[in-house]
Specification:
alpha/beta; 30% helix
Amino acid sequence: DEPSLVCGRTVLEFGAGIGLLACVAARAGASSVAATDIEPTALEFIRQSAADNGFPPHLVHAVRWDWDQPPPPAVLDVAGPSGLFDVVLLPDVMYDDAAVERLGELAPSLIAPGGLLLWADGTDRPYGEAHSNRLAETLIHAGLTVRSCSEMRAGASTADGGAAPDRPVRLVIADK
């Protein structure tokens, strides 16, 4: 809904899966997108999604990354000389405590001054809002400011074949 958040900016997506957000960011005018995932099959999906949407190879980069390791050079190269991104996306990737801790360490270190961190987390999981709240606390301690926090209900309806109708989701935007 707000292409200005990514237009003309470098974008890093954690856990990109099929590359949906990476492609949305590219369509909204991002200057370059690093779509990361640990799964080799996901990287193929990302590349295919980018190709299916007609994006040139230099716009959406599918990069394998195990978050237990430092960012690979291929991720940092997409950001440009600073190695920092204007926008970092965390789309529904906080499945356990370890992921929340690691994302809380990694994400702030990869955001350029004046950059944004956007995350979405389904609050219908057993952990409810706890992971999202803990990430917010960690980021605030790292010097980020939570700009907005929205609760919404999302998901395709069962009539449309949706697997998660009326799913509660928290959307957060933080500034560095």
